[in-house]
């Protein structure tokens, strides 16, 4: 059947346009908060009923809307924020298209009250699309927007949104995000008559973090700051010990606007590489202040996506700033979690650095130990420790006294707060990772010559990128070259890599070349693989001297509490936990 082309009627056009802006109740809350912030409000109250479907009311103390502009504000593309195409390239407000109130009025019962300056307050009621009524009312300075019966005229939309609890959760997340991005504004959120969130607008980001996430998380956030060449970054990021199973608590703002930018998300995750396990994500609250002319916010109807004039540079600055903050925090901050908040009787990952304290010899524990030496650790200890000490000398672990080895896998030690278990493979992996990264930066990877060269046969697919593989091997301290159509001859290998691990490492390298097109990401993965393959393994017996040497080297690394894959290197069982387990303490 042939269908004739015909123009759409105005009501259908209105609803289509509204669908781009108003996807669900949280979209309404977002647009109304944007308007309140643009009106210089210092206090914003949000009231929600039935997940926002029955009622959304946003009240602010901003500048208000003059009576003569009230009817204009619900017309399509009517705005006070831009006046010419040139203004689109220097937007410094959150809203600018003049679509929000028009779109909301198209799918709800909308009422706006506002008072501007010394003028009396006015109320605009949208009776139906294009049909409004305005009257004078008494009210304080500011604006009150009331949205009732959302999607009453587009019931099909209700099939695509969640129930009241789900939608209320989305609204809560939206308000939390704005509260974190605007600490100078007091926010209050009430859902079905119950207060869900309150911040006090004192301008302190940490206070907002405490209100949103709680005091324990607030106390384990570290500041990030950068200012140079028209880019300024302010905010807080979590220590690696505080993490999430998804990215929902990574909050990035550009000039106060909450945004989603893949390049920034990638840079943030990379800054935590080797500090968090796969599938774990940090808590991040950062605000980038960039001249508006260098940011394009007119990319998507929701205004959540942005582009920068130089995406790569901005992402690089964000990544370096966070990484630097983490390194400085590991060197100087005592961020141990409060003992009283720990699960009773459970070992926990060491959160961070510790205060120095002496250990009394009379409380020493006696554990059977080995006198055997492990040549691989001894051969790396002096060189690795001295090179790391050049950069970092501040202690980042508690003073530990080695007592012995358990299951040929874990080093047991005594410290100022109790007992500590160190995963020997994870600890050595962290030491080697930072050593490898430093050598790769300087192109000075130590090598060892093989008495008998290795000839490695590649698979058909691997042979297709043989040149890249050979180049990468030579950069990593190998001496390798093509040897026929599908073979590589290897004459030297990195000094830290055991010969028996060469084949497995080259397999890892082939996968990394195949999986990672991004050079930086691939090099990080290669360094992690080389550190993992080169580190001592579980099941290897160590002498007391080797265990002491391993802990000394670990203490000199930048990030001693996590292995190259983000797993913990050290666990703690505090004295108070031991006393509870033995019934000495209630």
Automatic annotation (TrEMBL):
Keywords: DNA damage, DNA repair. One of its GO terms (molecular function) is ATP binding. The keyword DNA damage applies. Residues 209-327 form the DNA mismatch repair protein S5 domain. Residues 402-542 form the MutL C-terminal dimerisation domain. GO terms for cellular component: mismatch repair complex. The keyword DNA damage applies. This protein is involved in the repair of mismatches in DNA. It is required for dam-dependent methyl-directed DNA mismatch repair. May act as a 'molecular matchmaker', a protein that promotes the formation of a stable complex between two or more DNA-binding proteins in an ATP-dependent manner without itself being part of a final effector complex. This is DNA mismatch repair protein MutL. The lineage of its organism: Bacteria, Bacillati, Chloroflexota, Chloroflexia, Candidatus Thermobaculales. The gene is mutL.
């Amino acid at each position: 059947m042939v269908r004739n082309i015909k123009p759409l009627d105005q009501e259908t056009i209105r609803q289509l346009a509204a669908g781009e802006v108003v996807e669900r109740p949280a979209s309404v809350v977002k647009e109304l908060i944007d308007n309140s912030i643009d009106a210089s409000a210092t206090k914003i109250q949000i009231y929600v009923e039935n997940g926002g479907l029955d009622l959304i009311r946003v009240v602010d103390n901003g500048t208000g809307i003059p009576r003569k502009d009230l009817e204009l504000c619900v017309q399509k593309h009517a705005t006070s924020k831009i006046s010419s195409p040139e203004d689109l390239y220097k937007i410094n407000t959150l809203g600018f298209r003049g679509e929000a109130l028009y779109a909301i009025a198209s799918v709800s019962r909308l009422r706006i009250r506002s008072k501007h300056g010394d003028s009396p307050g006015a109320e605009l009621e949208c009776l139906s699309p294009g049909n409004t009524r305005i009257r004078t009312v008494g009210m304080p300075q500011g604006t009150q927007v009331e949205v009732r019966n959302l999607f009453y005229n587009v019931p099909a939309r209700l099939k695509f949104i969640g129930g009241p609890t789900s939608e209320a959760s989305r609204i809560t997340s939206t308000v939390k995000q704005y509260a974190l991005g605007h600490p100078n504004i007091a926010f209050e959120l009430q859902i079905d008559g119950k207060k869900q969130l309150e911040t006090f607008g004192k301008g302190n980001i940490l206070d907002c973090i405490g209100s949103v996430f709680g005091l324990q998380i607030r106390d384990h956030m570290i500041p990030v700051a950068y200012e140079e060449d028209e880019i300024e970054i302010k905010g807080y990021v979590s220590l690696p010990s505080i993490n999430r199973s998804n990215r929902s608590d990574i909050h990035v703002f550009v000039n106060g606007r909450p945004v989603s930018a893949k390049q920034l998300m990638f840079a943030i995750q990379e800054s935590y590489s080797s500090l968090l396990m796969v599938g774990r994500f940090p808590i991040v609250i950062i605000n980038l202040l960039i001249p508006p002319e260098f940011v394009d916010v007119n990319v998507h109807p929701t205004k959540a996506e942005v582009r920068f004039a130089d995406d790569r540079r901005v992402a690089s600055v964000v990544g370096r700033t966070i990484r630097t903050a983490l390194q400085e925090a590991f060197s100087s901050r005592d961020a141990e979690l409060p003992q009283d908040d720990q699960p009773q009787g459970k070992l926990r990952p060491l959160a961070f650095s510790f205060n120095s304290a002496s250990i009394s010899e009379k409380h020493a524990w006696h554990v059977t130990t080995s006198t055997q030496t492990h040549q691989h650790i001894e051969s790396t200890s002096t060189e690795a420790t001295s090179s790391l000490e050049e950069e970092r000398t501040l202690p980042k672990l508690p003073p530990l006294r080695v007592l012995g080895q358990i299951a040929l896998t874990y080093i047991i030690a005594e410290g100022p707060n109790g007992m500590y278990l160190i995963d020997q493979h994870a600890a050595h992996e962290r030491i080697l990772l930072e050593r490898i990264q430093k050598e790769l930066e300087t192109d000075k990877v130590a090598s060892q010559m093989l008495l008998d060269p290795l000839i490695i046969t590649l698979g058909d697919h691997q042979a297709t990128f043989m040149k890249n593989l050979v180049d990468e091997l030579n950069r990593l301290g190998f001496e390798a070259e093509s040897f026929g159509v599908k073979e590589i001859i290897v004459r030297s290998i990195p000094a830290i890599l055991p010969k028996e691990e060469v084949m497995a490492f080259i397999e890892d390298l082939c996968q990394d070349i195949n999986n990672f097109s991004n050079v930086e990401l691939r090099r990080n993965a290669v360094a992690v693989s080389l550190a993992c393959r080169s580190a001592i393994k579980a099941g290897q017996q160590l002498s007391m001297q080797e265990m002491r040497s391993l802990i000394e080297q670990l203490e000199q690394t930048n990030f001693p509490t996590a292995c190259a894959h983000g797993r913990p290197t050290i666990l703690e069982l505090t004295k108070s936990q031991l006393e509870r387990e033995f019934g000495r303490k209630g």
